[in-house]
Each structure stands twice: as structure tokens, then as C-alpha cells.
Here is the input.
Amino acid sequence: MSLSTLFHHLLLSTPVPYHPLLAIIKGLRNGAVYGAKIRFPHAMVMTFLFRNGSLRDKFTWILRATYTHSKNLATFVLIYKTLMAIMRRVEGQKGSIHPFLSAFIGGYFVFGTHDKINEQIVLYLLSRITVAFAKLAVKEGYISNPNFEVWPWFAAFVWGSVLWLFEFHRWTLQDSLRSSMVYLYDDSNVFSNLKNFLWHNK
Here is the structure.
């Protein structure tokens, strides 16, 4: 019997006892794959745009960053789905607090180490949940629904704030953001000939 046939037979014969375990394993797999797919192109672009060093050093950093992102996301999914399965098994159903507790524990142990990759991931999520909580507050009636278009003012505030911080307190900004802004706003002030005006940055 082939592995594929055995797996299919397992799913059909006893789906209830084994499904949570198989879902955890697939979650681990999906976390690893998604982490690699997201990080590799990002690391490639940022490394070749802003990172100094030999070609070997650059590819070493790209692979290390990809591995770290993939490992962390896979580990987090493993912890989250395992704790969710345990709590559901104990209480007999999914509780409203289960996702928060499971993710809280996973987030502490996986993303609690303050490095550049974890910082990027956590700050990315922070921006998303800020908007999500604002939408939820409107839906639940905690704040009234604005009678004007919010997005232009939101965008203006974000850009105004980040450029003010960059000009006067740039040390507060995350490294990759600061590097991007140096390239856009500082390096564009430096040129001495046609070559470094159009073809090369410096």
C-alpha cells in the first residue's frame, strides 16, 4: 500500500480522532512554506538595495533571514493550533478566549525575541490590528461612524508623522524603514555629475 493510499484510508476510516493532529502538521507545513515565500523576495530586494558586503555575504543573509522567518512562523502555527486543539478538547468546543490565549503564548515564546525579523512581523501585525479594532469599534457602536472619508486624513497623518520623525528623530524608526527613507530623501540631495544623477545613486 502506497503512502498516499494509506493516508487516504486513514482520513476516511477515522477522521475524528486524527484530524486535529493532521491539521497541526499541515499548519506547521503551511507556516514554513508561507514564511519562506514572504521573506525570500523581500530579503532579496532589501539586501541588494541597501546591504553592503560580498555576494556570498548577501546570499548568506538572505537565506538566514528566510530560514528564520519560515521557522518562526511554522513554530508559531504549531503552538497555536496545538493549544487550540487542547483547549477545545478539554472544554468540548472552541471558546472565544481560546484564540487570544493560544496566540498570546505562541507570540511570547516565538516572537518575544527582539530581532529585526520579529520586529518587522510584529509591527506589520500592529498596523493591521489597529485598523481592524477601529472598524470593530465602529461596528459595535463604541465610536460613531464618521460622516466623511477617513482614509485621506489617515494617510496624511501617517505620512506627516513618519517624515517628521525621520527629519528630527530618525533614530526612533525601524532600521529598514530608515534605510529606505535615507535613500529617498537624503541620497537624492547628493549628485555631482550625470552618472550619479540618473544612473547611480552614489
